[in-house]
């Protein structure tokens, strides 16, 4: 594997400090390579294997020319603010619905050249055992840093468009997103993915969110239409007192995606909700790995993941709740349910509890299986065909997760996308 | 609740003075030859041991487990030690060293009493060599073979050759391979076709002679349509250094056969500061080879400084059933990383896992389990329930289940909870005149009931007491 590191360095000038980090991290990545199933956290997604089977000539994305994005991909009939990223690079933003004084946005490229600004995010370039993180540290050349002031309630949701065009083909794109939400502020954020001409690329993104006191961040991952992309997303969240973080994963599209969510509940009464749907067909392979760390008293977390697997697909859920010995009165919950509908599909789950405090209520459940014959029989006695019955059950099964979305306008929007998608699928 | 400290010395902590024959310290070919020689083993057995030893040299000790322990110096252990009286074995109880008999009496298993009253054939293992085997005649009449494995190697070489290492291959993992190379003794059971073993077979293991690793090897074969229930229980004398115990237990169930294997483990857990105690690294695995076969593991784990074991079932035969019932209690500085593996290979296979973990003091208790359904295991079914109880905020309880499903007609359910004893429950019991300790004991026994019920009568009473004793002084 030759990622032309020197060339990358030359064309992406940065502070000396960052350059040193890049060199270190590149060395580390070179030693480790892509993760393999021998590593516990990658047990079910052998990335090294997947990459060597699907990419013959994977290169680092390093295109200086900024092209224009395809405007027809912008969502219509839905009032929202925009941030547009093309191949991981910041293109433009539009906050016309909001109070501009409260919102600061800057492309990461600029920050990399500014010592004072870089110092603020320097800590996020810390060491990691995970070689994908090292890879990202070494080659991240852009992204955004979004700072939202205190006491601000967004009028409409923000959509971050992640577009990919032909220049990204066979490339590995590394970028970073930093979002800080001020005290008592409220934001609904949609991470929206779309690529052109069904190209094959690898996207490696690290998200770092800070949610301050009494703030609420609702995040939605939307990647609905089938595509040929490979993704690794790592989200790290710091939650302060009385804050709420909600994440809804609705990523049905990519060939491969591994979503990692690391949520640290640092102060009391903070909460974290992770809900998601996996509806997989063909050779898709999706994994969700969560790690909710209860570091303080009276925090709450809940996870609900529902998966439906068709054809040769492969789904994995690795969830973990860690409770520190300080974190008394914790309430933690995990539930994973999967329907395996094809002979060749596979579902693995590893719901994990690691508990060091005694006054806690933690539980998890995990089920996998086929559709219950009794339910089908019931529907068929009411005049439905077997196919209709199957579809109705699957729809109802997944809809339960969509109903947990607390933002009504987004729930309607996601429902619409879901119906479009499920109607195209043969169950 | 008022903090309360009741210091409870380990009830079974004593050593008996009996002169031992020992192999020289260290792990090498000479020692293996020494063991093989003293056991008068045939050449194929020695070859088998050496094969394992050669393999061991290339292996690395695993380190992924939750409880960490100081590195074991394998060259600093004795791999063989036997009470002297074993060289000319006694024919009946009157010939047994009276000191041994006394030891058992202190343990609460008066051998002659048991023989008459409870109808259990006890194959008592004192250190590494079986000393007295009772009820042999009755079993022989039915064609059941129940003897020390060293005897089986000489008398039934075909059975041993066929099945030894067939469930736990010598290449399996570090401790299993170590055991294959240096195992000293253990039990061998063969139940012939269509025979229902008329009594519970039982072995009391006991670690004596200081600085000895205990490497037991047990092999149980249930031929077509047979049934056997096997009990294993242990207590160990008080001691300062850590002792390694790496036993291998292999079960084979053929068509329509059923094996029930129950364990009560109460080895020395170390003192209240976590010094000393046994390392219990045991490999237990059963293969349901035949159609409609069944293997059921029941364990009550209250002792040992570190318990690290996963009694497993390989469900090869169609319609075979695997069960695992476990109570793991850790107190003071004890650590446990235990659970099971259920590997579904045959059609219509079923498995059930009930695990109860109780953690008190500074202890760490981990349930780690695997449920794997292969693509050919149509209509496989699994139900898993793991509950953990925490007492105090210095201990930990962890649940790490691996659930892998490759078959679309199978059904897996898993649930786990972690909580503490609620104030309401305690209050209710106190109100009715029970003191704090009694109340906790009662509630914990209720919490464990599903598992305790699975134990054979002879064990159930003892185990219930043990659950209470293990937690004494832990509630404040």
Which descriptors apply to this entry?
heterodimer, A: 427 residues, ten-stranded mixed sheet, B: 476 residues, six-stranded parallel β-barrel, disordered N terminus
With helices defined by DSSP (H or I, 4 residues minimum), what is the helix count of chain B? Answer: 11
Largest sheet of chain A: 10 strands, mixed
Report Rg of chain A.
21 Å
Instruction: Count every beta strand of chain B, where a strand is a DSSP E run of 2 or more residues.
Output: 24
Oligomer: heterodimer
Give the structural class of chain A.
Answer: alpha/beta
Q: What is the strand tally of chain A?
A: 20
Low-confidence stretches of chain B: 1-7, 84-91, 112-122, 125-132, 205-212
In short:
The complex is a heterodimer of chains A (427) and B (476). Chain A is of the alpha/beta class.
Walk me through what this model shows.
The complex is a heterodimer of chains A (427) and B (476). By secondary structure, chain A is an alpha/beta fold. Helices cover 22% and strands 40% of the residues of chain A. Chain A is built from nine helices and 20 strands. Chain A has helices at 5-11, 16-32, 47-54, 108-111, 115-121, 131-139, 373-381, 386-402, 408-423, and strands at residues 59-60, 81-86, 89-94, 103-107, 142-148, 158-164, 171-181, 186-195, 202-211, 216-223, 230-239, 244-251, 256-265, 271-280, 285-294, 300-309, 314-323, 331-340, 346-355, 361-369. The longest helix of chain A is centred in the first third of the chain and has 17 residues, at 16-32. Chain A is globular. The two termini of chain A are 41 Å apart. The mean pLDDT of chain A is 91. Chain B has 476 residues and is of the alpha/beta class. Chain B has one domain. Chain B contains eleven helices and 24 strands. Chain B has helices at 29-38, 43-58, 98-107, 111-117, 136-142, 149-155, 157-163, 174-182, 423-431, 436-452, 457-470, and strands at residues 20-22, 81-83, 121-126, 129-133, 145-148, 187-191, 201-206, 217-222, 227-235, 243-245, 248-253, 258-266, 278-288, 294-301, 306-309, 312-315, 321-330, 335-338, 341-344, 350-360, 364-373, 381-391, 396-405, 411-420. Chain B has a ten-stranded mixed beta sheet, with helices on one face. In chain B, strands 13-15-18-21-19-16 form a six-stranded parallel barrel. In chain B, strand 3 (121-126) and strand 4 form a beta hairpin. In chain B, helix 6 (149-155) crosses helix 7 (157-163). The longest helix of chain B is centred in the last third of the chain and has 17 residues, at 436-452. The termini of chain B are close together. The A-B interface holds A 40, 325, 328, 338, 340-370 and B 64, 375, 388, 390-420.
